[in-house]
């Protein structure tokens, strides 16, 4: 029977009627967390130091609560562990615990002051794969607004730490002035909303509660699937886009047999997590600039700008959009701003797909939703959070190994969506609030442009459960991740061309 | 319908020797994609029974990949990706997901294979544990060497059927229907205009992108080689300007290019060639000297550097901010306080001068460059470093230019705050003041080397503008 199914399309045409497959609707309710103010409201005059202050102010109570619970009645060698408010109040030889921001002092980390004190005209050295010093010159510091402590001790070796995360440490200051830590605590996962919580809340507000809820629930059919893809890497050249075509045909429900087409009908949304276009190094080095200038032209300059990648991407989107709604996150190589949070790619880049964007000024998300990176929002009631990969790629430079899932887990447990910003990751100088602090634990955390597809579930103290998904680069692996919106199970679909040489 | 498909396929594949995919067939005949797949099969079947090997098919397989596939894929990835090997494995206190990592994730594989790769032990079918479906993807007249060619079918579709409303025709082709689709009602973008350039670029893309890189590297050389009308006229008119100035005659832009375009062009290229090399050398000298020099001379050097490089406005302003910072440092260090004051004075003067200059009455620009001798590099630098953009500016007939105006204000706390404000300013060569300025500066700044020195009069002024800061 299975054999018959498989070969169903290797038959002569019959008068068979092909039913129209309906795509599962997607309940979509994005958050505007990472949208920056527009125009005059957005400026870059502020100091980045405020971000650290805000982050510490926000996360210190959380980590102190956890630390107090663990350590407040703890006695080590007959000595009570005492809480210390500020890093500067730590006294030598006294067993205590204190909370602060981690700062990694790494000689290989890029340092703006070094650049200036040397020769600022020299072109930048190639970016390092890792900042870790092979000779062990790296130091871990704990700082707050009062001062800085150098940390030593075994817990440092077994836990992942990067600049910018907020932790509490317990130990004593030794004769060298180093703080020898016995234990450390991180803020851990924040509260996780219930499924449909936000949608229910707004529904109740809108309808005054009561019977509307039952109706809402009815509309929530069994959730479909969400396809997540990253790193499409369109470069506008012919010759390597066939897998992209296969992906498109698959998602449209044209490729494969009927059973597969029905399954594809359950895919209710496509999320593109960054790096859709390879073209485009937005920043030119100083060496290039003078030459560029000599060919100065006003307006469109075809020698400096290649429209093919965006045109090809637009075509891809415009073909898919009639059938499936798309959420598009920008990534490092996309035509958006470079610093996090990257703002949505402007619909003007997509002359064909923009018909599916909402009318300016209208309410509600568009069918084609060009969003920020990082992004969070509710899909089928689940809180989704994702980014184009930059925060994880930057953490990777700080730590040993290449355990992407572990980095993702730690990032959530630090409650900081981009801990290494603004130190080594470019970001907007937030002034009133560090938007990267994770206030509500997502159900799904996906990160784009990772070296390989990986997934795991992590659990929190308060019953939180998060599905982590490292989404590989489609261009390299041909893989798309399907996330089941009922069970949060994942599935990988791989597109290949056999024996490609 | 079946008859239609046969004639169409015969015409396309056998006569025109084109590749037909199930998608292009379904578009052509307005049938469901699954029907099109069957038509392809039927045609393939009849043709190969008639004459084996006359047409060639590719297949799309869909199913659950087998174990062999999995392992080989993983091994391959390891090879490629692990460039950075860590000495010791990283251990974590909290790794609750360790078991999960080995959790088998259901996967599905969709493979496009040539017909000869379909069967056999090492073939595509053997990669699957279970095959959900298999169908013909495309038919072609001969063996396809590179399957990537097949993406051409989709490109053709997107061009040929671009005028079809996908919401209306999607159902015909079996595209999964979505009731919730929201689309703006406005007009759709002009398709022809968009796609034509796309296609041509696609074809040229690879050579083009290389070309861009090359262009950027020797943009100077590009000037003599490029046959773009714009630039050649500009350079011609530039040379014409030079001649006019030399002979002191009012110039007539209209007929000059026609009279001696070729000669002018060659001159231009010579100028660029001769200048491009010395300039880079000078840059190197400066860099090396500035690294070893003490802070105060450093300023001077970076000044001269900015003179040479004549970078975009943006960089010049960065430079200036840095210098403000350094200058204040110097004042604190009381080493060169008078020097910095002097510089500030000059800076202020410069600002005034510059304003006048921009308005077209910049007679005192040469003076400024003399005043600033102590800071600027040797005068020869200025002379030997004409810049293309400025040269072009000289040759442009009319236009608007964006200038950054600097305003320095003292804020409430007593800090000096420098603000840049972009402003547009229109200028025109027909304007007499601008023209008169050129000979004036030529007289003072040139050492009378004939055409070469005449080539940069407009530039000398702007150079000194950068030099001051």
TrEMBL record, chain A:
It comes from the Eukaryota. It comes from Imshaugia aleurites. It is an enzyme of class 2 (transferase). Belongs to the DNA polymerase delta/II small subunit family. Residues 284-293 have a biased composition (Basic and acidic residues). Its EC number is 2.7.7.7. Keywords: DNA replication, DNA-directed DNA polymerase, Nucleotidyltransferase, Nucleus, Transferase. CDD domains: MPP_PolD2_C. The keyword Transport does not apply. It is found in: Nucleus. Residues 201-220, 279-301 are annotated as: Disordered. This is DNA-directed DNA polymerase. It catalyses: DNA(n) + a 2'-deoxyribonucleoside 5'-triphosphate = DNA(n+1) + diphosphate.
UniProtKB/TrEMBL annotation, chain B:
Residues 68-84, 214-228, 302-316, 338-351, 409-422 have a biased composition (Basic and acidic residues). It comes from Imshaugia aleurites. GO terms for cellular component: delta DNA polymerase complex. Residues 395-408 have a biased composition (Basic residues). This is DNA polymerase delta subunit 3. GO terms for molecular function: DNA-directed DNA polymerase activity. Residues 352-362 have a biased composition (Acidic residues). InterPro entries: POLD3, POLD3_sf. Pfam families: CDC27. Its main location: nucleus. Residues 288-297, 439-448 have a biased composition (Low complexity). Keywords: DNA replication, Nucleus. Residues 85-96, 234-256 have a biased composition (Polar residues). GO terms for biological process: DNA strand elongation involved in DNA replication; DNA synthesis involved in UV-damage excision repair; nucleotide-excision repair, DNA gap filling. The keyword Nucleus applies. It is found in: Nucleus. PANTHER family: DNA POLYMERASE DELTA SUBUNIT 3 (PTHR17598). Residues 68-98, 204-469 are annotated as: Disordered.
């Amino acid at each position: 029977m299975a054999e018959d199914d498989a070969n169903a399309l290797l038959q002569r045409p019959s008068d068979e009627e092909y039913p129209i497959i309906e795509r599962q609707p997607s309940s979509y309710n994005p958050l505007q967390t990472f949208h920056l103010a527009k125009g005059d409201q957005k400026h870059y005059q502020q100091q980045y130091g405020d971000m650290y202050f805000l982050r510490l102010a926000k996360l210190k109570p959380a980590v102190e609560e956890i630390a107090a619970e663990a350590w407040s009645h703890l006695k080590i060698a007959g000595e009570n562990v005492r809480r210390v408010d500020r890093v500067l109040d730590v006294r030598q030889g006294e067993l205590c615990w204190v909370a602060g921001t981690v700062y990694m002092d790494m000689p290989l980390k890029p340092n703006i002051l070094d650049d200036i004190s040397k020769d600022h005209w020299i072109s930048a050295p190639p970016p390092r794969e890792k900042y870790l010093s092979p000779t062990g010159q790296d130091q871990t510091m704990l700082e707050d607004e009062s001062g800085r402590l150098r940390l030593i001790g075994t817990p440092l070796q077994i836990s992942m730490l990067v600049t910018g995360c907020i932790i509490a440490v317990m130990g004593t200051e030794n004769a060298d002035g180093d703080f020898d830590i016995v234990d450390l605590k991180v803020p851990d996962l924040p509260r996780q909303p219930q499924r449909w919580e936000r949608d229910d809340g707004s529904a109740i507000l809108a309808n005054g509660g009561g019977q509307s809820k039952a109706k809402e629930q009815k509309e929530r059919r069994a959730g479909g699937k969400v396809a997540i893809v990253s790193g499409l890497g369109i470069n506008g050249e012919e010759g390597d886009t066939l897998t992209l075509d296969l992906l498109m045909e698959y998602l449209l429900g044209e490729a494969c047999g009927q059973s597969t087409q029905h399954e594809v009908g359950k895919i209710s949304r496509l999320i593109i997590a960054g790096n859709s276009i390879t073209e485009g190094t937005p920043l030119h080095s100083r060496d290039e600039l003078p030459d560029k200038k000599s060919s100065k032209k006003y307006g469109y300059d075809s020698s400096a700008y290649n429209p093919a990648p965006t045109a090809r991407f637009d075509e891809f989107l415009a073909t898919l959009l009639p059938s499936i709604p798309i959420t598009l996150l920008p990534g490092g190589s996309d035509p958006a701003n470079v610093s996090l949070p990257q703002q949505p790619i402007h619909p003007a880049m997509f002359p064909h797909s923009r018909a599916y964007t909402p009318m300016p000024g209208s309410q509600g998300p568009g069918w084609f939703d060009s969003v920020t990176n990082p992004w969070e929002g509710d899909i089928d009631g689940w809180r989704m959070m994702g980014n184009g990969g930059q925060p994880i790629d930057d953490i990777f430079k700080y730590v040993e190994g290449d355990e992407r899932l572990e980095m993702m887990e730690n990032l959530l447990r630090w409650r900081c969506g981009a801990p290494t910003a603004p130190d080594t990751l470019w970001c907007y100088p937030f002034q009133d609030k560090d938007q990267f602090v994770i206030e509500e634990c997502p159900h799904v955390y996906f990160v784009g442009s990772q070296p390989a597809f990986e997934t795991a579930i992590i659990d929190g103290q308060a019953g939180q459960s998060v599905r982590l998904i490292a989404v590989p680069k489609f261009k390299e692996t041909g893989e798309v991740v399907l996330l089941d919106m009922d069970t949060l199970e994942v599935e990988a679909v791989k597109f290949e061309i056999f024996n490609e040489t | 319908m079946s008859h239609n498909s046969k004639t169409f396929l015969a015409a396309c594949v056998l006569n025109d020797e084109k590749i037909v995919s199930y998608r292009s067939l379904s578009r052509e005949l307005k049938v469901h994609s699954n029907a099109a797949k069957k038509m392809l099969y039927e045609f393939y079947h009849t043709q190969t029974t008639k004459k084996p090997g006359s047409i060639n098919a590719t297949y799309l397989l869909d199913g659950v990949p087998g174990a062999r596939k999995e392992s080989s894929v993983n091994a391959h990835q390891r090879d490629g990706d692990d460039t950075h090997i860590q000495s010791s494995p990283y251990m974590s206190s909290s790794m609750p997901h360790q078991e999960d990592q080995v959790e088998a994730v259901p996967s599905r594989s969709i493979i496009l294979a040539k017909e000869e790769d379909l069967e056999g032990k090492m073939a595509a079918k053997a990669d699957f544990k279970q095959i959900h479906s298999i169908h013909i993807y495309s038919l072609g007249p001969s063996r396809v060497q590179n399957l990537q060619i097949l993406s051409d079918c989709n490109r053709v579709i997107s061009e040929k059927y671009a005028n079809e409303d996908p919401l209306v025709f999607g159902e015909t082709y079996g595209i999964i229907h979505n009731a919730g689709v929201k689309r703006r009602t406005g007009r759709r973008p002009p398709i022809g205009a968009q796609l034509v350039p796309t296609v041509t670029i696609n074809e040229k893309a690879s050579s083009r992108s290389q070309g861009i890189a090359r262009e950027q590297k020797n943009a100077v050389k590009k000037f003599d080689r490029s046959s773009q009308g714009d630039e050649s006229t500009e350079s011609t008119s530039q040379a014409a300007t030079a001649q006019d100035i030399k002979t002191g005659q009012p110039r007539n832009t209209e007929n000059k290019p026609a009279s001696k375009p070729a000669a002018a062009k060659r001159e231009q290229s010579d100028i660029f060639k001769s200048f491009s090399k010395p300039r880079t050398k000078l840059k190197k000298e400066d860099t090396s000297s500035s690294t070893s020099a003490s802070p105060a001379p450093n300023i001077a050097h970076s000044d001269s550097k900015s003179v040479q490089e004549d970078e975009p406005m943006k960089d010049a302003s960065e430079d200036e901010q840095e210098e403000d910072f350094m200058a204040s440092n110097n004042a604190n260090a009381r080493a060169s306080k008078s020097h910095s004051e002097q510089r500030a004075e000059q800076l202020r003067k410069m600002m005034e001068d510059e304003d006048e200059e921009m308005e077209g009455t910049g007679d005192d620009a040469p003076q400024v460059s003399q005043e600033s001798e102590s800071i600027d590099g040797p005068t020869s630098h200025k002379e030997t470093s004409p810049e293309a953009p400025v040269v072009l500016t000289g040759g442009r007939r009319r236009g608007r230019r964006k200038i950054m105006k600097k305003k320095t204000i003292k804020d409430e706390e007593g800090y000096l705050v420098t603000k840049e404000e972009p402003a547009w300013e229109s200028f025109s060569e027909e304007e007499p003041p601008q023209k008169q300025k050129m000979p004036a500066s030529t007289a003072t700044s040139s050492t009378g080397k004939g055409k070469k020195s005449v080539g940069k009069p407009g530039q000398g002024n702007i150079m000194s503008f950068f030099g001051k800061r």
